[in-house]
Design the sequence.
């Protein structure tokens, strides 16, 4: 009797142990890939599942939730030969647990390696300007390539986001100078457009004011009142230039008439054939050549203030000619004395 009780106790204990080891509880987002003696069985879960005890069936849990995987920074040289560091984040989930277990040994590690190589390949084929300006397009390209590569593993890639593009310091300074120059160019263009529009408005305003002369006076009084309202000690009163056009024209007209009269006198004195050429000896003795009736002596014409620079130059040339003639006569006088003594 005692031996039978012991046997029953052993059987009860073994049955309880078998039941406890064969029962599994799976969460809603988990699935169980079961192998019975090495052969795969249909998926089980979620909830309470039963497995054949004593290692007849073995289970592997697979999560169906979206996994966010950080892609480490990758040193990449872009197509325009700029060295950058790019890192990204990958979002994916297991769409087929059987493939994720049967087709790949470690789908997490494999997906990470594929994402790194794809990131280097895609960024290396792009220009830096396109990479910075069209980041959304590169995200779509990365997602499509990685999703196509992981589809045989039962992995569904939901998104790829490029987080940061780390540029060298020299490139950052160059881009900052370029951006500053572009802003200055835009500022100059906007200022020029404003000046152009202001000039058009001023032209239209001037056309309106020119139709009524009294409106210009009213505008002047309005400006004067605005200046006086600022408590200035000095007030400027602009005067139209038309007030001075008459006197200035008369003044310059008189000077022009005087210069013309002097030129006519000088021309009469220098007319060819009117003054006889004097001999060097006569010029040396200081005699004045005879002038025809009505002619004016050059020295007198210059002394009268003809106001013409040409008349003064002609007078100075004549005096220089007279001095040279006197020197020539003075050099010839000793020879004349010697001949008379002989």
Sequence:
């Amino acid at each position: 009797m005692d031996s039978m009780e012991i046997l029953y106790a052993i059987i009860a204990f073994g049955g309880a142990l078998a039941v406890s080891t064969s029962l599994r509880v799976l969460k809603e987002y988990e699935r169980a890939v079961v192998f019975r003696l090495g052969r795969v069985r249909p998926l089980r879960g979620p909830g309470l599942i039963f497995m054949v005890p004593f290692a007849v069936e073995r289970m592997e849990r697979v999560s169906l939730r979206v996994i966010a995987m950080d892609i480490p920074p990758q040193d990449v040289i872009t197509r325009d030969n700029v060295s950058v560091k790019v890192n990204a984040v990958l979002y994916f989930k297991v769409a087929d647990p059987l493939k994720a277990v049967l087709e790949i040994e470690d789908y997490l590690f494999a997906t990470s390696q594929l994402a790194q190589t794809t990131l280097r390949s895609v960024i290396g084929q792009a220009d830096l300007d396109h990479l910075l300006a069209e980041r959304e397009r590169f995200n779509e390209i990365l997602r499509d390539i990685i999703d196509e590569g992981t589809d045989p593993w039962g992995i569904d890639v939901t998104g790829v986001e490029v987080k940061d593009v780390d540029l060298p310091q020299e490139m950052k300074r160059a881009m900052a100078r370029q951006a500053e120059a572009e802003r200055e160019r835009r500022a100059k263009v906007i200022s020029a457009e404003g000046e152009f529009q202001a000039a058009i408005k001023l032209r239209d305003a001037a056309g309106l004011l020119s139709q009524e002369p009294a409106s210009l006076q009213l505008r002047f009084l309005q400006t004067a009142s605005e200046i006086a309202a600022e408590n200035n000690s000095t007030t400027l009163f602009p005067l139209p230039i038309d007030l001075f056009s008459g006197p200035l024209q008369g003044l310059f007209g008189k000077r022009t008439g005087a210069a013309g009269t002097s030129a006519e006198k000088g021309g009469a004195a220098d007319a060819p054939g009117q003054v006889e050429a004097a001999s060097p000896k006569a010029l040396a003795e200081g005699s004045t050549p005879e002038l025809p009736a009505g002619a004016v002596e050059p020295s007198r014409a210059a002394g009268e203030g003809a106001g013409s620079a040409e008349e003064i130059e002609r007078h100075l040339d004549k005096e220089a000619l007279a001095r040279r003639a006197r020197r020539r006569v003075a050099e010839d006088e000793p020879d004349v004395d010697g001949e008379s003594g002989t």
Summary: Residues 79 and 125 are 5 Å apart (CA to CA). The longest strand covers residues 83-94.
